[in-house]
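Worked problem 6 (solution included).
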Amino acid sequence: MQAFVFEQRSIPKLYLRFSLPVVFSMVVSIVYNVADTFFISQTQNTALVAAVSLCAPCFTTLMALGNIFGQGGNSLISRYMGQGNDDDIRRVSSFCLYAAITVGLVAGMALLALRVPVLRLFGATHQTMQYALDYYVVLSLGAPLCVLTFIHSNLLRSEGLAMESMVGTVGGAVINIVLDPIFISGLGLNATGAATATVIGYAFSDLYFLVVVHKRSRVLSLNVKDARVTMQQAGQVFAIGTSAALANLMQSVCMILMNQFLLPYGNDKIAAMGIVLKVSMIVLLVVTGFSFGGAPLMGYYIGAKDGRRLRQLLRFATILLCSLALLMSLTLIVLAPAAMQVFLKDPGVVRDGALMLRLQVLGMVCAAVVLLVTNLFQAAGKPVESLLLSVSRQGVVFLAVILVVQHVAGYVGILAAQPIADLLSAALAGILYFLRFRTREADGLRRRDIASSAVGCTPTPSAE
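Solution. The predicted structure is:
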């Protein structure tokens, strides 16, 4: 992708050009997640719905492993794009590819070996264990394919090939959606069918991405001989990628904690929360798509030391993300009972789910702020700040909040833990942004501060 594409005058147009394909991919992912839950829920088997919901942390764990190399590589490659460093881009992209394949194989074997204790940790009971095993085993066997998908879906965007990234993600999701009713209901495979459709969808995306990199990419490499990086480069990938991965792992931890806290109240509460998390993901994934879509631009402007355009980008992105989060959250708050009735007809589950959904989306504007600032720190190569935010909203802050509010308000307190954690995490994001960026500004960002965050770039004094 030529540099002039990153340097077009209109920041809003440029931001939307990069973000909309990512958002569209996220929307299709939303459709898949909702469709997957819908087809499973049509069995009206609460234990089956609960069992598949219990396996969600397994999927987010695989996503986290992929994002170590996908988002870590994206951050470093975007900065190299700003510097025009094609040789290092090839090395880093090849390293991320083959490291991800290796990690996926190891993860799959570990998940299979520990399947029963892991599912018990997730909250499986004797009513849900067999259904959960059916789903979990297939997903574990497909672990390398799942991990690999997140590599080039991220790296292609760093080169400006956002449309190609979108097509690969969307194509896999569409295949998944088509196969779901065939495998779940048509062949009567239930949880096994849902997981099989998921793995086949990822296999399609992987194949498509490899073809695109081979045919279309100017700088990304598939050659294993290029997978030789310096310790500094590997450290940058792991430092930024780990903070991104921890966000996914913390999401898994959040799900496990929520299931454990809801377990005494019955499987119907877990089933309701499983549906709520899928529906509330509509808001979260749209916001995430717009936030991630701007990451290559952030990295490019940081690598090119263009603080003025970076400030313009952040201002526009903040207004857009917060407005979208507010509008979509209000819509779900109003339509919460109707949204639950799409999946399950039990009046008690619908009533419980409506309350859960309203509370779950209450703090989405705060979540949007956290996501944007986290992406900024990742793009800038700031692993400490990125790590702190990655383990806050659905990690350390959430854990502290849920332990306190459970004792104060019981069941309702458990449900209210997420919006409270969102608010506190947004406050943390604001403080970290002020300390790292606002207090170091000469013209947006001091050039020497930006230079120190770009690998291979020697800090230079500001010319201004």
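Discussion: The longest helix spans residues 392-436.
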